[in-house]
Every structure is written in structure tokens, then in C-alpha cells.
Write a structure and sequence with these properties.
Chain A has helices spanning 18-44, 49-70, 74-100, 121-135. Chain A is mostly helical. In chain A, helix 1 packs antiparallel against helix 2 (49-70) and helix 2 runs antiparallel to helix 3 (74-100). The two termini of chain A are 16 Å apart. Chain B has one domain (3-116). The chains are: A mainly alpha, B mainly alpha.
Chain lengths: 142, 117
Amino acid sequence: MTVETTPKKTRDTRNTGPGRLLIAVYAVFAISATARAGYQILTKFADAPLAHVLSAFAAVVYIVATISLAKPGRTWFKVSLVAVLVELVGVLVVGAVSLFDPVAFPHDTVWSYFGSGYGFVPLILPVLGLLWLYRRRPSGSA
Amino acid sequence: MDGYFYAVLIVGLLSTIICVVAGVMKKAPNDVTILSVAAVELVLLVYLVGSIIRVALGEKIAGEPWEFWGYIITALILPVGAVYWSILERTRWSNFVMGAVGITAMVMAARMNQIWY
């Protein structure tokens, strides 16, 4: 970590290098999850309110993660951290529940079956996000 | 799956491979990688125009029409956004960003085909 060559001034950003790819993928998921949740809620909300509320929640998490990762500063770092952790917990819990109790989740969400419908990217993304946040954590005690 | 899907599949796959290889080779975005993303945009534009003509000639979209149009419009925005985003920071990571366009376009084209038929 100490071999970081980036000047201290630009250290507190996460929107550079690999972070740009991360933000791009988050942005794609923010768009697709929002569109999907919007579509589900508008057309068939009554079928499975819980699953569709979860879809909407996932969409919000992706939007917050995308924006906060793109912003510099310690506050946005914390927002990113919370968003990515919520995402990780979400995909693990929803993934597990969808596996053990498919009746509770008759409709797929982004996180159902650990995101298998999306090539497991929803499962990998928060792990990469945490690694990236760790590498770019603000210097000093957070 | 129709010809449009296979066109997006081939061009998208090529573009993703070109961009990822360039990224692995630690190259900054260059004409080749940017043009490969532009090719994806071009194929999607042809898809859009072709689809408009088909609907105008009376063909019916089996699924939700606005879902189909939403997908194709979003797909058309992605290459432009990725190229813009990669020009702002010309590092090898921007090639990976552009590499994500082709594969995303492929997935979206597959979904668009499902909606259409």
C-alpha cells in the first residue's frame, strides 16, 4: 500500500484507474435494475410485492453506489462503503432465501440465486467494490 | 434469434475482445478500440432503423413494445457514454470500460429478441 505513487491530493478519490471500470459496471446495473424494478412495479406489482420492493431497493443501492464511487472525499467514501456492504448482504441473503424458499420469491430480482441471471456479476461486484474501497481508503483513521 | 442479434453478437464480441486485449496489453484507448465500440453503436443503429421499418410495415412485437424500445435506446446510449468516459481518462482501464459495452450490448440484444418474438 505504501508504494502508492498517486499524490496525496488525489488519493481520496475512487473514480480513476480500475475504479472507472467498477463505476461503469455499477452504472449499467443501476440502469438495468431501475428499469426492471420500474417495469415490475408498474405492470405486476400485486403478483409479488415483496420481490418487487426488493428489486426497487436493489436499484437504489446500485444508484447510490455508482454516484458515491464517482465522488471524491471521505463522506462519499463512507457512503460507498455502506452501499457496497448493503449490496453484499443483500445478494447473500436474497440469494440464500431464493435458493431455500423459492415460494417466497416466485419472481426474480437482480439478487435472486446470487445473481445467476446476471452471470453472477451481482455477487462479484460488491467483493471487487470492497477491495477497491480498501485500496483507496482515506489515509489516517477513518 | 434473428440476424440483428447475430450481428450484435459478432460485432459486440469482437469489440469486447479487442478492448480487453488492449487493456491487458496496458494500452490507452486508441483508434482501434474506440472504432470497435463505434461499430457496436453502428450495428445497434441499424437494428433501431430496421425495427422501426418492421413496425411501420405492420409487424407486431410479441412482448411489451415500450420495453423493447427502452432496451434499444439504452443500448444506443451505452457506447457513447463509454467512449466519453474513456476519453476523460486515457488509461488502460478505459479500454476495459469500453470492453464492457460489447458484452452488455450482446446481452441486451438477446433480451430484445426475446421481447420481439
